[in-house]
Amino acid sequence: MNPGGVALKQRSNPAGVDLMRNSGIEAVKPIPFFGGQKISKRLPYFRGNGLEPESRALIRLVHESFFEVKDAILPILDLHSGFGTIDNVWWPYAYTKYSCPDTSLYQNIEKHLKHHCGHIHFQYGPQSETYTTHGDLWDKLYDQYRNYHKNSLNWNSKLLPLTLEVGTWSDLREDPSKLFRKRGIFNPASFNKIETIGRYRGFLRDFIRLGLMKPKDLK
Question: A Gene Ontology molecular-function term (predicted)?
Answer without folding.
Answer: carboxypeptidase activity
